[in-house]
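Forum: Protein Structure Q&A
Topic: Joint prediction for protein chains with partners

I've read a bunch of threads here and the consensus seems to be that you should model interacting components together rather than docking separate models afterwards. I'd like to see that in practice. Below is the full input, 665 residues plus whatever partners are listed. Could one of the regulars post the assembled result?
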Amino acid sequence: MEPLIEEAALDRTGAPLDAMTAPTGSVKKVDTRHKSPTQIALARLRKDKLAMICLTIFLFFLAIAIFAPLLTKLEGQDTTTLHQDLLDEYGFPTIGATSDHWFGIEPRLGRDLFARFVYGARPSLIVAVSVTLITAFVGVVMGLLSGFIGGWVDRVISWIIDFVLSLPYLLFAIAVPAVILTLFSDDASTADTSEVTKARFVSLILVLSFFGWAPLARLIRGEVLSLREREFIAAAKVLGVPTRKVLFKELLPNLVAPIIISTSLALPTYIVAEAGLTFLGVGLVEPTPSWGLTIANATTYYRADPLYLWLPVLAISILVLALSLLGDSIRDAFDPRTRR
Amino acid sequence: MLFYILRRVISAISVVIVTVVVSFMLFFVAPTDPAGVICGPRCTPERLNDITKSLNLDQPPVEQIVLYFKGIVVGRDYTSGGVTRHCDAPCLGYSYVLGVPVTDLLAKAVPVTLSIVIGGATIYLCFGVLIGTIAARVRGTTLDRVAVGSSLVIGSIPYFVVALIIALYATFLPKSQYVPFFSNPVSWAAGLLAAWLCLGLTNSASYTRYSRASMIEALGQDFTRTARSKGISERRVVYRHGLRAAMTPVITIFGVDVAYQLVNTIFTERIFQLPGLGLRILNAFNQYDLPVLMGGVIVGATVLVVMNLVVDILYTVLDPRVRLG
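Posted by a regular:
Agreed with the consensus. Here's the joint model:
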C-alpha cells in the first residue's frame, strides 16, 4: 500500500530489499536431509569462508572487550593514570610504542593508549548488543500482536510504527540526552561526571531502542499477516490451542529467519550509531573510554600522532565491516531467494 | 486518487502535531528548569520570577502547548522586564543563549544544509547510477565484482570515519566554508566541494548496488529483448530502454534518501564546520538552548514528513502499477 516509507525504513536499517539487494556470494550447497531449516542455514554459513573470517574478527573484538582488565593488567597500565612525566612541554608524548606503553600514550593527558583502546571496545559492544536485544524483543512482540490480533490493535500499533519511522532519529538522539540528564541530577549545569556518564549511557540505549524496534515490527507484522491465513494456524485454532501458544509455538518458529537476518544486519549499525553520537559529543563522555571519543580527541593531533587517530578508526571500520559482511552472509544463508 | 492524497495529508499532519506535542512534553513538562538556565548562576528571585512569567512556565502544561501552537500558527508576544516583543508566525520561541527568534536562526541555517545535500545528491545519483549500469552490463566479470565489492566495503565503513579522514587528509581540496550562492557562486561551490565529494562518494556505493540490481532486472525483461530484436545498438538498448525502466525504483529511494539527509547532515556539517541545521542544533545541545533544540526537532520532523508525502504521491503518478487502497 505504502511501499516508500517501508523501503526507506528497511534500507535505513540495512534489512533486505527484495529485488534491490546484491548479496555478497552465491548460496552454498549443503546436504539438507534430516535437518531443520535453521540447521541447513547454519550448515550453509559454516561453508561460507568469508562469513567465517568475519565471525573470527568479531569474536576477536569480543574477546578484547571481555578480557580488557586482563589485557591491561598484562601491560601493567590502566585507563585513567596521567603519565605527565612522559609528555614534553607542549603536551606531546616523548615516547612512541614501548614495552611499558604498547600503543604509546595520549598527547596532552598522557593516558595509556592500549588500555583506552581495549576498554573502548566495551561501550560499543555493550550498547550495540543491548539495543539489538531490546529492539528484537519489542519489535517481535509488537509485530506479532499487530499482525495476529488485527483490528484496532493493529491500527494503533501501525500508526505508532509509522510515527516512529517518520521522526528524525539523529535529532532526537541529540535532544534527548539534554533532557534525560535532568532526571539524574537536580541541576543540569552542575551535574558531576558520574551522573552525566550514567545519564548518557541510559539515553543512548533508550533513543536507539526507541527508533530501532519499528522497522522490525513492521517486517514481522507483514510476515504474520501472510502466515496467519495458512492452514496450520487454522488447524491450531480449530484444535483449541490457546492464542499465546499459537503465537509463540506456531508463528514464532516460522519467523526465525527474518528475525535473525534483521538483527544481524542491525548490530553493526548500532555500533556505528554509538561511535558516531559519541564522536559528535552527544553520546558517552569522558572519562569513559570509547573509540568515538578517542577519534574526536585525536583529530587535532592527527599529524603529530597518527597512531592515536588510526587505531580506533581502523578498529571500528574493521569491526563494522566484518559484522556487515557477516550479516549479508547470514541473510544469504537463511534466505536463499535473494541470491543474485 | 484525490481521496488517497487527502488521507495521506491528514496522516502527515497528525504525525507533525504529535511530534510537536511529544517534544514539547519532553522539553518543558519534564523536570527541566528553563528559567534557571536562562537566568544563569547570578540569579535573583525576582528575575527568575519574571522569566518564568515571560515564558508562561507558571501555567499548566496544556495551556503552554496551546500557546506554543498559537505561536506557530499566528505568532505570539513575549513580555520580559516590561518590554513586549512580538514573535511573528511561525514562532518557535526565542533562543535562550542568543536572544533571537528560533525561526530566524533556523532559516539562516537551511540554505547551508540544502546546498550540501543538493550538491552531494547530484554526485551520488549520477556517479552511482553510472557505475551501477556499467556493472549490470558487464555482469559477472571482474569489473562487476570489483564494483560490487568496493561498494560493499565503502558502504559498510562508518560514514563519519570516512568523512573525517577525507576532511583531515584531502588538503588539496579548497578549504571548506560556506559562502552564500548569490554573493559568489564560485566560492560557494569551492567551499562546499569537499563536503559534496564526501557525501557523494560514500552514498554512491549504495546507489551502485540499487541501480545494478534494478538494471539487471530491466535487461531481463521482454521489452529489452524486443528492443534488441529491432536491431538497435546495444548502447541505445541499455541507456534508452533499460535505464528508463530501471530508474523508477532508484528515484523513489533517492527521494526518501534526500529527505533523510536533509535532517541527518549533522556529521558532514560538524566535520567540515559548515553552519547548517545540524551544526546549529548540535551547538544548541552544547549550550543547553532548549527552544532551538526543540525547533530543530520540529522542523526536521516536518521536512521528513512532507518529503515522504511528496515522494509517495509522485510515486503513484510515476508508476501506474501502484494501486491505491
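The longest strand of chain B covers residues 76-80.
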